[in-house]
Amino acid sequence: MASLEELREARLQKLELLKKEGINPYPAKTKRDHSIDHVISSFENLEKEQTTITLAGRVMSIRAQGGLVFFNLFDGTAKFQGLLKQEEVDAKIYDLFNAAVDIGDFVEVTGTVFVTKRGEKTLSVKSWAMLSKTMLPLPEKWHGLQDNDEKLRKRYLDILFNPELKDLIEKKAKFWQSMRNFLITEGFLEVETPIIENTTGGADARPFATHHNALDIDVYLRISAGELWQKRLMVAGFPKVFEIGRVFRNEGMSPEHAQDYTQMEFYWGYADYEKGMDLVERMYKYVAQETFGKLQFKIGEFDVDLNKTWERFDYAETIKKFTEIDISQATLQEIEEKLRALEIKFDTNGWNFSRAVDILWKYCRKQISGPGFLVNVPKFLSPLAKSHEGNTNVVQQFQPLIAGSELGKGYSELNDPIDQAERFLEQEKLRLDGDEEAQMNDTDFVEALEHGMPPTCGFGISERLFSYLANKPIRETQIFPLMKPLQEGGAKKKEAKVAVALINKGANLVGWQEKNAIAHLTAAFGARRGKELFKFNSVATSDDQKINLNIQHAILIKDADSSDALYNVSHVAKSQGLEVSEFTREMLETTNDKKVAENTKSKPVKDIEFLGVLVFGYKSEVDELTKQFKLSE
Q: 248 has which bridge partners?
């Protein structure tokens, strides 16, 4: 098989051939007068009247036989077959097409349509022109996009060959447009607020910092979709405003979190959180129907019906229902004992009652399919929210609960300037103590509140809702997720790669079973990655006896304590584009792949017992992902 460099060189020679024939391989104009989808829809009339038409697009396949050349053309709307007959066109037209056109090139073709003997709608080509000569082949013609990292880095090629990905991108556009249409119909005004700020506000998050050269000041990229600016518009007299825009948070990655993403926030004057819940429920149903054409979704292990009555989940009552812990009476020690009984790990660094309750809630949350709203959150967990008038221990906050996760957050917004100023000062103390996620003191906003802001409901939702409804990690639903840069010249960075195999010690495997798991993980990994794992195949002894070489990357073995821990690592690794191999109880019990498939298909993922997971990628990424696990002894 020719190398990529050899294929490129061959195309460069074809480029020179076109130039010698006086043909511009990159013209600015095309005579295209029909899109392919229009030709398909109006085919009968075009065939009946023998209308001469011109199509343009990318050549996706070429098949030559005798004096015939069949090819498929794709213009982004649909594919259509073209046919060049040697006996019906000038010899130069036919010969140059054969000599200069490759799969992947953009061409313009002119002719009339007909139906072949096999019943395929086809364009009988009388003339053609080159629109863009490609230098590199499409992936299926060389190594293909097998590497997850390459798929995300060369997303344009993944989209070209993956109709599901193209459909996902189109759905995401519908998602935001339908949300925009809903809010505008409800009387909201779309606004734009600053992305670069002197102080960040509206969330507890670590911001990205940069420098403004013209003003010679340090500034931040916003961490919310203009919350404090939109509240200023409430002061200014606008009753309903919203913004859809990019938000930036300098935090960790996970299947549910990204560092730059799209968020919508609305602010509704003279409304409280009760009105907000009614509006949000209607909005979610509308957006889901407009985007996906349905209200029933499979999200992870949950079956979610948005058309059901949305329940209200009281924070304390829900925890008591699932754990028998009354957080209004329980001590920190009692909660710790319950967490241990539930086999929930927790880190005691910075440990306190609030953190313990929050971890307990997350356990409960993951068992709730929804849809519904989390309400009556304790004030000690949401100190910046407005308290209930009848119960000052809980706040006027609501969060949509769908598929075990909170997908959005809203409040009856704080409009007491004295209270707000005091809370900013408390947050500022936290920042001085090293909490980079604490909010900054925005005295200008406090001054705006002193001029008066009406009772207001605010709500925010990020693109995570879309990723949940699409049942995919958020990174996979972004068109061009941020990737670490390649070195100049296109070579990958020189950082070493490493494989880490994690073994489930909680499964109580005997010696041969552990070895079996490790063997299968490494074999599956090697089969998927192939010869690229080797620098060269063998080494020679002094008497010229060859010994087949080991792969060039280290393989470490570490211990995990549960199947859940392995699944979480696997889930995050996949979302980050790392190579992953997995070994489950079903694979240990039989070598019959059909039975493995049947047994696995019969269970939700939560009931699959993971015995081992192998993760391969750049050392810094794999080390960060597996740093909590100890090396096997």
A: 260
Cα within 13 Å of Cα(631), Cβ side: 5
The rounded Cα 174 to chain-centroid distance in angstroms is: 16
- For 291-303, letters b (16+ CB in 10 Å) and e give bbeebebebbebe
230 near 215, Cβ under 8 Å?
A: no
Q: Are 369 and 304 in contact (CB under 8 A)?
A: yes
Strand (E) or helix (H) holding 528:
helix 511-529
Question: What are the tens digits of pLDDT across the range 284-312?
Answer: 999 999 999 999 999 999 999 999 999 99
d(CA 378, CA 389): 13
Location of structure tokens 């054969």: 98
Both structure tokens of 44: 């009968």
Residue 386 burial (C-beta neighbours within 10 Å; 0-12, 13-18, 19+): buried
Contact between 231 and 191 under an 8 Å Cβ cutoff? The reply is no
Determine how many CB atoms are found less than 10 A away from the CB of residue 238.
Answer: 15
Distance from C-alpha of 333 to C-alpha of 341, rounded to nearest angstrom = 12
Q: pLDDT for 433-485, tens place per residue?
A: 766 666 777 888 889 999 999 999 999 999 999 999 999 989 889 999 888 77
Identify whether the C-beta of residue 347 lies closer than 8 Å to the C-beta of residue 356: no
d(CA 29, CA 260): 37
CA 177 to chain CA centroid, nearest Å:
19
C-alpha to C-alpha distance for 153 and 155, rounded to whole angstroms = 6
The rounded distance, in Å, linking the Cα atoms of 198 and 98 is 61
Tell me, letter by letter, the H, E, C secondary structure of 170-217: HHHHHHHHHHHHHHHHCCCEECCCCCEECCCCCCCCCCCEEEECCCCE
217 contacts 211 by C-beta, under 8 angstroms: yes
Q: For tokens 């292990």, what's the residue?
A: 301
Q: What are phi and psi of 353, to 5 degrees?
A: -60, -45
Residue type, 89: V
| 493 has a pLDDT exceeding 80 | no
Region 355-366: what's the mean pLDDT? 93
Cis peptide before 371 (omega within 30 of 0): yes
**Are the C-beta atoms of residues 258 and 478 closer than 8 Å to each other?**
yes
Rounded to the nearest 5 percent, the helix, strand and coil shares of the chain are: 40, 25, 35
Give me the torsion for CA of 194, 195, 197, 200, rounded to 10°: 110
* Contact by Cβ (8 Å): 543, 531: no
Length reported for the chain? 633
Sheet holding 217-221, edge to edge: 196-197, 217-221, 209-212
How confident is the model over 571-608, as pLDDT tens digits? Answer: 888 878 789 999 999 999 888 888 888 888 888 888 89
DSSP annotation string for 383-426: TTSPBPSS-TTBBSEEEEEETTEE--EEEE----HHHHHHHHHH
Distance, in Å, from the CA atom of 366 to the CA atom of 488, rounded to the nearest integer, reads: 45
- Residue 427: other Cβ atoms inside 10 A: 21
Those residues with Cβ within 8 angstroms of residue 598's Cβ, 6 or more apart along the chain or in another chain: none
And the tokens for 265? Answer: 């926030």
Residues 487, 489, 493, CA angle at the centre, nearest 5°? 25
Residue 251: partners with Cβ closer than 8 Å, 6 or more residues away: 205, 206, 257, 259
Beta bridge partners of 615: 500, 580
pTM (2 d.p.): 0.76
Separation between Cα atoms, residue 85 and residue 64, nearest integer Å: 10
